[in-house]
Design a protein that fits this description.
The protein has 135 residues and is α+β, with helices and mostly antiparallel strands. The chain has four helices and five strands.
Length: 135
């Protein structure tokens, strides 16, 4: 009897964890309340190019790009499943700041919320890679 309860508990936990999956669409529509924001002291076009290189360098695959103006851009990218993770998604928003600054906002989501072995927050790595590609 205890064995059946244990199997049920594991199944319920697994099913519950898998139903709370992040998708490209859900991350794209996510509010920026959970984002980490950086001011990058470069013009937007340069930051756009550096961001594409940075995501490629960090082995993210770009899933969607939404350009809405000369500077505004929203990119959703994913990291594939690995031995340690079910995969992760990031959304990076770019917009003009003031006087040759570009605002870079990063939101990171695990594909499966209960995946505690996933990296979690990619904001610093993305920002650092953008800065490296600008220099």
């Amino acid at each position: 009897m205890k064995f059946r309860i244990w199997i049920f508990a594991i199944s319920a936990f697994s099913f519950g964890g898998l139903t709370a999956c992040a998708t490209v669409s859900s991350v794209s529509d996510e509010t920026t309340d959970e984002s980490v924001s950086f001011s990058v002291p470069h013009e937007c076009q340069s930051v756009r190019q550096a961001l594409d290189l940075a995501l490629d360098e960090l082995k993210f695959k770009i899933e969607s790009v939404d350009d809405s103006g000369a500077c505004s851009r929203k990119i959703v990218a994913k990291k594939s499943m690995s031995a340690f993770s079910w995969g992760e998604l990031v959304r990076v928003d770019l917009r003009e700041g003031d006087s040759d600054n570009t605002i870079l906002e990063v939101v990171t989501k695990r594909r499966v919320a209960v995946n505690i072995t996933a990296k979690g927050d990619w904001s610093e790595e993305i920002h650092d890679a953008v800065i490296r590609n600008l220099d």
